Amino acid sequence: MNILITGGTGFLGGYLIKELADQFDNVYILSRQGSLEKFSKIKNLKYIKGDITNLDVLGMDENDKNAFLDSIDVFLHAAALYDLSATYSACFIQNVVGTQNVLHLINRMKNLKSFYYISTIAVGDQDSFFLDENSLPKRHKFLDAYSETKYLAEQLVRENTETPRHYQTRIIRPGIIIGDSVTLEMPKIDGPYYFIEAFKKYGHLLKLIPFIPLSYNPRAKLPIIPVDHCARFIRLLITRDERKTELKTYHLVSSELPTLTEFLADLNDMFKLKTYYMAVPENKLHNTLLKLTGIPEEVLPFMFSKLSYDKTSTLEDLPEISESTYSAFKNILFGKS
């Protein structure tokens, strides 16, 4: 069996390669970058030069291309532009155009058995109460380019399944990916790390303030998952799949997700604070103050989210996800081993 992966040079992609290398005869990494030095010990890893933003994704001779495409059994599309400061056009080209080009490519693969698309729970409507696994919610309002373009990309993937295909399609929606649950590795500030960095910077001031009116929903849950857990669960889904052609979607978020109230209490414990955070409705003043402390506007929807996440198929096909609990790994958020 051979697998072709996009996004293998990214944070999650690196973990996916390590998880999947032993499961396939050949692991092909499609990338514009030519260096795979950090994977030098993986002998069955092969680099394929390509660019998903070009319609001709693979710059190969046509005969070589056909032979290569016919050799692929599983395609894992994990490449995406996830940068809250990126322009809409940049996100659109990478996430939407790139996915459209990948779909054109996989439909040429005569022996393809499975296509896995890495989406995101950010496709969910933060103003609703439930994100169903089996459908894409109707949305008309987006606050950031990433969630909008990933929504459009998943829409393309779903539309592609409306025509009968010889391969199965699986959509995987990870939550906010946090650091490694063992090594604590996290290459960038993202999600809950914005709050941790703000507390590091202003914790000495918070010690002087008994309570703070904070604009948030105290019952909003942080939909997080450690990167190593996420990669392991994706590997399990790929290797145990029964190759049935009906579309299935999985929500990869940890169990026992913390509410913002619980997360703020843990932050207080970390920084030895006794500050009380009084929840108030969203307003421009508090949003401005949050941004001044380094918390970007794109994080705000999660602070007011009412969403819960359907995990019917996930628990059925991946019961191990119940082992990933906030109480077991929360120390990694705070840099503790």
Could you describe the 3D structure shown?
It is a single chain. The protein has 11 helices and 13 strands. It is an alpha/beta fold and 337 residues long. It has 2 domains: 2-178 and 223-255 and 307-326, NAD(P)-binding Rossmann-like Domain (Rossmann fold); 193-221 and 257-305, no CATH class. It has a 7-stranded parallel beta sheet, sandwiched between helices. A two-stranded parallel ribbon has the order 6-13. Helix 3 links the parallel strand 4 and strand 5 (114-118). Helix 3 (88-106) runs parallel beside helix 4 (145-160). The model has no long low-confidence stretch (mean pLDDT 90).
Attribute tags:
337 residues; alpha/beta; Rossmann fold; 2 domains; seven-stranded parallel sheet; two-stranded parallel sheet; 11 helices; 13 strands; elongated
In terms of DSSP E residues, the strand content is 15-25%
Low-confidence stretches: none
Number of domains: 2
Provide the residue-averaged pLDDT.
90
CA-CA gap between termini? 38 Å
The fold-level CATH name of the largest domain is Rossmann fold
Query: Describe the biggest sheet?
Result: 7 strands, parallel
The gyration radius over C-alpha positions equals 21 Å
Give the helix/strand class: alpha/beta
**For this structure, what is the CATH homologous superfamily of the largest domain?**
NAD(P)-binding Rossmann-like Domain
Number of strands: 13
User: Helix fraction?
Assistant: 25-40%
- Order of strands across the biggest sheet? 3-2-1-4-5-7-11
State the CATH architecture of the largest domain.
3-Layer(aba) Sandwich
The CATH class designation of the largest domain is: Alpha Beta
Work out the helix count. 11
